[in-house]
Amino acid sequence: MNRFAELLDRLAYEPSRNNKLRLIIDYFRSTGDPERGWALAALTGSLSFPHAKAGLIRSLIAERTDPVLFELSYDYVGDLSETVALMWPTPTRSAESSEEDNLTLTRVIETLATLGKAQLPARLARWLDALDETGRWALIKLVTGGLRIGVSARLAKAAVAALGNKDVHDVEVIWPALVPPYRELFAWLEGRADKPVSGDPAPFRPPMLAHALDDADLATLSPADFMAEWKWDGIRIQAVAGNDGKDHSTLVVRLYSRTGEEISKSFPDLLEALHLPGAIDGELLIMRDRRVQSFNVLQQRLNRKTVTPKLLAEFPAHLRAYDLLADGAEDLRERPFVERRARLERFVTRLDDERIDLSPLIVFSSWDELIAARKNPAAGGAGADATAVEGVMLKARQALYLPGRPKGLWWKWKRDPFIIDAVLMYAQRGHGKRSSYYSDYTFGVWTKGEAGEELVPVGKAYFGFTDDELLQIDRFVRRNTIERFGPVREVVHEADRGLVLEVAFEGLQRSSRHKSGLAMRFPRINRLRWDKPPGQADRLETLLRHIEQDQLQGQIA
Amino acid sequence: MIRPEDILVPSPSGVCCKRGGFHIDPTRPVERAVITHAHSDHARAGHGAVLATQETLDLMRLRYGENFAGTTQAVAYGETLKLAGATITLHPAGHILGSAQVAVEADGLRVVASGDYKNAADPSVDPTCAPFELVRCELFITEATFALPVFRHGEPDAEIGKLLHSLALFPERAHLVGAYSIGKAQRLIALLRKARYDAPIYLHGAMEKITNYYVERGIALGELRLARGATKANLAGTITICPPSALNDLWTRRFPEPLAAFASGWMRVRARARQQGVALPLVISDHADWDGLTATIVATGASEIWVTHGQEDALIHWCASRGLKARPLDIIGYGDEEGEQDISSKESSGDVAADTSDDETS
Fold first, then answer.
1. Average pLDDT for residues A103-132, to the nearest whole number?
2. Residues B45 and B116 both lie in one domain
3. Which residues of A touch B313 (CB under 8 A)?
């Protein structure tokens, strides 16, 4: 348990993805089975302990500490699990060894699997007695659910894959067939056994991804070699159905996110529609009256945890199909795109369900025609769905379906971002390599406030600039600080003094969390406008009008 | 019968002994001051006469220059000195080199002002100073820097182990360890040596003078180098000790992929470490933790407790629950050196180019 606790502790502070990876790999290398397998299960969120709740932890500490001292401590620390972990009274050790000495993660998990609810408090207390501060913190986090240490399931899988110099995709493919503590996975990665066979009737297949297209790339490509379709602004998913059971009579249906996370439970309406065995690569969208809704609408469904009939009626899920990876039991990934596309068209026809349709191809014979379609999707074939078009996808006719991001086969050509001029208001130091630089910027636009014209923050961006621009902004921030709040500096932002940032973003939506009432999607610094007086930056009204237009289009459509 | 208040009186600028005609750790200039230790919130320049251990006087001189006081008098641990109507004795406080508790006696009543202290049972947790000595008394004046039950400092050797493990795992990164310049920095180096870390340890320029003084006093710190003189490539996989305020400073740009560690009792609380961008918090403190404070209070046998700077509320509540008379002393100007140099508080500002050149002497 101690070694696992140390790992979590260190991961919680480490900002860099790459360094997190190294910490986890080091742990897997230096820890044996089954301990490391349970750790992998914990990191990938594959464990749950229904009886352990925050309330239980609270009552345990209440029995052991003075209430005034507890409140003063909780108030200072600010986090319940951490307060309990830190102030848990350490019992005086008896000379004889206890069965809880050298408590392992394995023992904790195996015990919890069989322990009744009534015995849990006493057992948990004995474990907390036996552990140190970090161990107690890790144990409480583990059993109450949600490690929240900034490690995704994918990162943990990438770390375990690295043990055997494998790609994360190789682990993701067989992941659904594996159960904790994953002995056969480690055995394979360490070269002691064959690759575990996925017996899963509806497995996730590592997705093929596209490269971003620069205008310059286009000149090197021949239009005859490519097919084009719209890039829809939803979430990319894989919808897989396969026969299971002794006589292959049961159809297992699953939806996966593009990282291989299973999301079936959130979309029961779509599962019903998938009644034929096969694997579709497509975009999840919300469809109302045969019109694709904007990403903002989809997000409202994604944000809900529980799926109610009302939610299903108001936000009907839809799958727009891009590609077919399997037809029945036949794997199509080794076939060229042009052939897969033909098979996809037939498959969607056979499904014959209004919740699943084809992503239409864009007809073009020259790049100029495609450029025109991208500029005006409504006229280019997307019609009233054009508000949900995020750009154009180019796919080589002969491209096989290859995992990862192979060069030169698939290109994504996003529509031009929205651009505004905003004023730098606050700057915060970055993390890791950027910890001595002010690299996170909060920017605002003008609006009429109680005391006249004022800037209201509309977003935060921490990339998009070059290294040289970072130095320039950093210098500006240090020379123009008017107030400091810990790691944050407020910089001068007046009509005639301050720095104007050209900010690019992908979309806007209303948000009650922000004072400005809106939230930006994917904002980044496009350019520094040293030439522009802050007084001439954009106004909040302009942004709000943009949201209204977006919604209006959705309604008319 | 004499009461503790007849010997010592609290005032906003420190504790005053009228019978003996002196103040203890006053925060404004006074005629005669007894100084417990050399940290700047306790040891200020400008007093008429200063009584302290030789080490404290030396450290004050290094910090403030030759004329930091009108006259000075060195007092050895255990030596008793008569000052007008009272006698004083200095006893080791275990906080830093030269740190002392001040025992004041008059008419058979003894009061002890502890200054800052750490009461480690095992003297090897701090090879740089004399271990804390318990003095029984009627009135005990205690610090309260870490006076919440969440603060338990644990074994410093285990924290040093974390640092060395990180160094092994990330041999291409420079490990910067923030530590207060007087005491903590040298103790860290000594603990690293105790853990058999024999490579040269690099120092921020602000550490140089004080660290040299420790070496002169016979504390073995192994091979030390200034970070200033090293090339970036040579600093990969090394340990550099610097003031906490330098951790996120422009100064760090001379290091390859710097990793920020910070040695302080405050690192026990995650939010505090995270706020400061620390990637490797090391819980190593020169103050007593909660268990240390409460155990010491009990062991002194004192029936009355005065609590100075820190989390007084919790400690006073605890004393009350034990039937001990306790009160807070609101002395203005005491901070704690472990928090005073929070990373964000003293950052140098100004031109990037100028800052990166060399600002170590600031």
1. 93
2. yes
3. 72
Q: How confident is the model at residue A51 (pLDDT cuts 50, 70, 90)?
A: confident
Domain tally for chain B? 2
* Domain of B347, in residue numbers: 156-284+343-357
The residue ranges of chain B whose pLDDT is under 70 are 332-333, 335-362
Question: Rounded CA gap, A273 and B248, in Å?
Answer: 55
**Do B349 and B259 lie in a common domain?**
yes
Interchain CB distance below 8 Å, B271 and A72: no
Q: B337 in a domain, yes or no?
A: no
Q: Is the per-residue pLDDT at A72 higher than 80?
A: yes
Q: Across all residues in chain A, what is the average pLDDT?
A: 90
Interface A:B, Cβ pairs < 8 A:
102
CB contact under 8 A, B170 and A22: yes
pLDDT in tens, B342-361: 443 333 333 233 333 233 33
- Residues B315, B249 within the same domain: no
Same domain membership, residue B160 and residue B145: no
Q: Is B87 found in the same domain as B71?
A: yes
Residue A284's closest CA among A232, A207, A222?
A232
Residues B25 and B98 in one domain: yes
Residues B242 and B348 in one domain: yes
For residue B203, what is the domain's CATH number? Answer: 3.40.50
CATH number at residue B11: 3.60.15.10
pLDDT digit string (tens) for B270-313? 988 888 889 999 999 999 999 999 999 999 999 999 998 778 89
Taking the C-alpha atoms of residue A188 and residue A281, their distance in angstroms, rounded to an integer, is 29
Interface test with A, best of B150, B172, B253 (most A CBs within 10 A): B150
Q: Quick one: pLDDT at residue A215?
A: 77
pTM: 0.79
Q: Which residue of B has its CA nearest to A87?
A: B150
Q: Which two tokens stand for residue A271?
A: 């599962």
Q: pLDDT, tens digit, for every residue of A216-227?
A: 888 899 999 999
Domain assignment present for B219 = yes
- Ordered by where they begin, the domains of chain A are 2-144 (1.10.3260.10), 211-414 (3.30.470.30), 418-549 (2.40.50.140)
- Please choose, from the candidates B14, B38, B176, the residue with its C-alpha nearest in 3D space to the C-alpha of residue B96: B38
How many beta carbons lie within 10 A of that of residue A536, not counting itself? 13
B338 occurs within a structural domain: no
Same domain, yes or no, for B179 and B139? no
pLDDT in tens, B4-27: 888 999 887 789 999 999 999 999
User: Which of A3, A13, A64, A147 is most worth mutating to test chain B (most B CB atoms within 10 A of its CB)?
Assistant: A13
Query: For A302-306, A476-480, A501-505, which range has the lowest pLDDT when averaged over its residues?
Result: A302-306
Which value, to the nearest 10 degrees, does the dihedral of the CA atoms of residues A480, A483, A485, A488 take?
-20
In this complex, the residue of B170, B314, B344 whose CB is nearest that of residue A487 is B344
> Residue B247's pLDDT is what?
92
- Does any domain span residue B352? yes
- In angstroms, the separation between the Cα of residue B148 and the nearest Cα of chain A is 6
Per CB-CB distance under 8 Å, the chain A contacts of B258 are 435
